[in-house]
Amino acid sequence: MTSPLPPLWRRALAEFLGTSLLVMTVVGSGIAAQQLSPTDVGLQLLQNSTATVLGLTVLILIFGPVSGAHFNPAVSLVDWILKRRSGAGLTLTELGIYVLAQTLGAIGGSVTANAMFEAGTSLSTTHRATGGHLLGEVVATAGLILLIFSLAATKRGALAAPAVGAYIGAAYWFTSSTSFANPAVTVGRIFTDTFAGIAPGSVPGFIAAQLVGAAAGLVLVLVLFPSASDTADDVVLPHDGQLARK
Q: From CA 103, how far away is CA 184, in angstroms rounded?
């Protein structure tokens, strides 16, 4: 018998903290990379992506049993859409709270990373929204959605932490956009004019591309894994009240 989910406030807190720490990892390691390798952009990207892979994997393991470790409005949105088909997953109210917690967490993580490195918080001036970058975000987000929901549909959720970390690490390099693949993280990265920043003017295009990618990923999931609707409660990691109450 499935245990009841943890209270919504606890799941929202997990999403806030997880997304905050994720953006802290992305922005903080980007600042450190600039300081350590100021003349080598390739090495900066390697340092940034390595820290993100390791950090994301750990964060999924920490917060997954509480909230599922979405840390991403695109993931939560697809979870809600699948719920509409099967009666599982997030409700509309829960979706709104998850997205708010993720977005506030992302902004807080960016501001905290700036403070740790005494970089100052200011809006980014790095413009990224070229056609190639937007296509990269469609591809990155579609692949991420397909990965997460295929693991849930095939009862391999235990592999989510290393698999998602590995995918994001690879997508840093094989997409032109360096794989933001996350609307909340994209908003958070507005608030740092450092290696990981993105100018406010580039954000609408990035988020639109991410939503298109999420839709494409959802279609692929439903075509390849028709049972995905039955496992909407199990993304990114299966989560219930059993561990949260102990």
A: 5
190 and 197 in contact (C-beta within 8 Å)?
yes
- Residues shown for the chain: 246
Residue 148 exposed, middle or buried by CB count within 10 Å (0-12, 13-18, 19+):
buried
Mean pLDDT of 148-170: 95
Which tokens sit at 197? Answer: 């920043």
What is d(CA 57, CA 59) in angstroms, rounded to the nearest whole number?
A: 6
- Rounded CA Rg of the chain: 17
3-state secondary structure of 70: coil
Runs of H (alpha helix) within the chain: 8-36, 41-67, 73-86, 92-116, 131-153, 160-174, 183-188, 203-224, 241-244
Provide the pLDDT for residue 230: 73
Q: How far apart are CA 66 and CA 11, in angstroms?
A: 6
* Residue type, position 50, single letter: T
pTM confidence score: 0.93
Contacts of 100 (CB under 8 A, 6+ apart): 12
Q: 């049993």: which residue's tokens?
A: 65
pLDDT tens column, 65-96: 999 999 999 999 999 999 886 666 789 999 99
Tokens of 217: 């990923």
The mean pLDDT of 33-37, rounded to a whole number, is 96
The answer to whether 235 and 68 are in contact (CB under 8 A) is: yes
